[in-house]
Amino acid sequence: MWIIKVIFFVLITGVTTIFALANREDVTISMYPLSYIVEAPLYIVVIGSFAMGVVVYGIGSSFTKVGYEKMNSMNKRKIQALESEIEALKAEKKIKTSL
Asked: In this structure, are residues 27 and 45 in contact, taking their beta carbons and an 8 Å threshold?
C-alpha cells in the first residue's frame, strides 16, 4: 500500500511542478468592492486557491464528524439501555418459568 502512496505523491508533485513552470506569468488579482490589487504568478494563485479549498473542506468535514460522533454516542447509550432491558426481561422470564 505504501508504494501506491509514494507513486501517487511523486505523480502529484511532478504534475504540480510542470504546472508551476508552465504558468509563471503574473496575473492581477483584485477584490472588486475594495481597491486592493495584487500581482502574483498564476501558479501561486491556482495552487493557493486549491489549498484554501482543501482547508475549507477540512473545516466543514470536521463539523460533520462532530455531529456523527454525537449521534454515535447517543446510539451507544440507547443500545446499552436496550441490552440491559433485554437482560432484565430474560431474568424475569426465567423466574416465571421456574415457578
From this structure: yes
Q: What is the C-alpha to C-alpha distance for residues 46 and 22, in angstroms, rounded to an integer?
A: 12
Q: What phi and psi, each to the nearest 5 degrees, are found at residue 64?
A: -65, -40
Q: What is the mean pLDDT of each run of 10 residues along the chain (99 residues)?
A: 92 90 89 87 91 94 92 97 94 78
**77 CB-contact burial (10 Å; exposed 0-12 / middle 13-18 / buried 19+):** exposed
Buried b / exposed e over 26-40, threshold 16 CB at 10 Å, is: eeeeeeeeeeeeeee
Q: Domain range for residue 70?
A: 2-98
